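Below is how a single chain appears once it has passed through the pipeline. First comes the sequence as given, then the structure the pipeline wrote out for it. We keep one example in the README because the format questions we get most often are answered faster by looking than by reading.
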Amino acid sequence: MDGNAAVIGVIVIALSILIYRIQAAQPELNAGKFNSAERSTVSAALAHALPGSVFFGPHPVFVESIQSYWAMQERDIVPQCIVRPRTAEEAATAVTILKRDYDERTSHSESPLLLAVRSGGHSPIPGAANINSGIVIDLRLLNNVVTSDDHLSIAIGTGTRWLDVSNTLDRMGLAVAGGRNSAVGVGGLTLGGGLSFFSPRVGFVCNNILSYEVVLANGTLATASETVNAGLWRALKGGTNNFGIVTKFVARSFPSTKVWGGFLYMTSSKASQLIDAFYQFTEAKPGVYDEYAAGPLVCFSYVQKVGVRALATHLMYTKPEKWPTCYSGFKSIGRLWSTAKIRSLTSATNELDSSSPPGLRFETPLVF
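Resulting structure:
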């Protein structure tokens, strides 16, 4: 590529990224919408039973909780109240009260009050972790990260973000199968199955969960593992929050040092080469497949405000080795610049977080 054209390409793509991030940083202006709905009997009962853990609009804690959702369409939803349990026992108390209210309403053929459960609040789906005029259980105060004495497992509170997990484990030379984006919550990713940079080697995130601490629908606090409540243990591996509210995970940990990876930025003229490199990677023959190589994230982008088409590819190798053979097809493509380097897992997940800032209205395609 001509030197001047390359410089222009870099400037234009950098400008488009800057515009994207500035747009995401615009503050929420409609503060009046945070006046919550009229309080019901059950929300009053929750506030009485859990003083200091139940919040109504426009209390600052209520407002912060709503404004901290990643996607704007989740911020548009205003619940009746937000319960922020400080312990698993408080979460169990909340469920007991809600179950009592549910039984009372349904016995009189009334519509039950709806409930949503939140961990990191990183879903773009409206209502996934918030509920209009209902009750939200916000688990973000359940955020302890505790390693076992033998370093073979780690207990993680459901409200923890993956940033806090990797920050703890990086210092110890350990890792778990966890989120690729540091801002994602542990609960939603893990209960949904969960893809990780380590998945080619150890499977889904849920495959690495040794046990769950979970509040059942009747308010009972239970443990589910391979030997205790084994059916529930299996059901929670991809069962989301359909079987209870998980308050803690115990995950398998393993030795890990640095990783290598980052973004490759290219002009749109490289599209056919990029597709071919991606195909070659997915068609790796026996003996070539590398379990330390995470699947490439290939992005074809159009930035409408500046009319720019650009390509970005994210590569991640879970060893501190530059340009492993499995990524040779990507290495040969001319690029404007690259952020790929040997780094900590925390650094790698922070970079993916920075590429998808909060506060935008993300579209989610429906798949049938």
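The longest strand covers residues 245-255.

See the next section for the split statistics.
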